[in-house]
What does this fold into?
Amino acid sequence: MDLPLSKKQLQYILIFALAFVIRSIFVIQWANTPYFNAPIVDAVEHENWALKILSGKIIGDYPFYQSPAYPYLLALIYKIVGHFPHVIPWLQVLAGSATCVLVAVFSEACFGPFVGFFAGYICVLYRPFIFFTPLLMKETFTLFAFAVFLTMIMRAHYKCRNIDFLWVGLSLGFLALFRSNVLIFFAPLFIFWLITKKSKFKIAAALFVAGLFAPISLATIHNWLASGEFILINHGGGYVFYVGNNESSNGVGNFPHEISSFPTQEQKDFKRIAEVS
It folds into this structure.
C-alpha cells in the first residue's frame, strides 16, 4: 500500500507543476517569434560552438574565453537526440522547474517551511528566470547548477558524511564551468568547515577539494593543450570586470566603443587591445 504524500511533498509538486506550466506557455509563445529559429549574440555563439564540438573539434584552437559548460552540454544533448535545437528549451523548462523546487528545499532547511515555500513560489513567478527558458543561453542551467550546489551544502552541513563534501566540491566545480566567478565561495566554505568540523575535517576537506578540481581540471587541460598556458577555466574575467567597473559603467553592460558586443568579435578585439597594451 502506497503511503500518502505529506503536505511538504505536495507543496514541492505544486511548485514544480506551476513552474513547468508557466515556462511551457512562454516557450510556446516564444516559438511564434522570429528569434526562436534565429538565435542571436550569445545564443548563436553557443550553437556554433556546440556544432564544432559535435564535428570532432573537442579541443579548440584557443583557450576558453567564455565559460565552456553550456556549449559542451549542448553538444552532448545533440549527440544523444540529434541536432534539434528546439529540444533545448523544453529541457530548460524541466531544469528551471527543478530549480524552483531546490530553492524551496534549501530555503526551508535554512529558514523554515514558510520562507522555503515562499522562496520557491517567487522563483516560479520571477520573470527573468522565465524569460531565459527558451533561449540557447546558459542562465537556466547555471541557476539549476547553483541550486544543486546550495542543496549539497545543506546536505553536507546536516548529515556531515565525508561523501557529502565530495558532492559539494563536484557541484561547485561543475557550476564554475558555467560561471567561474562562483569560485569565490571556495575559501569561505573551506574556512567555515575548518573551524566547525575540527579533527573530522581533514578527509572531508580532501574530498571537497578533489571534487571541486575534478571537473575544473578538464577545462585547465583543454586550455593547456590549446595554448600551452595555464588558464584555470577561461580568460574573459578581466574584460568583464572592466566592463562592469570602468568610469563610464552604468550597470547595464556598457561596452567600450572600440569593442564589439558580439562574442566572437569581442574576443578578437579584447586580444588586439591587450597585445597593444
Q: What stands out?
A: The mean pLDDT is 85. The longest helix spans residues 201-227. The chain has twelve helices and no strands. The two ends are 72 Å apart (CA to CA).
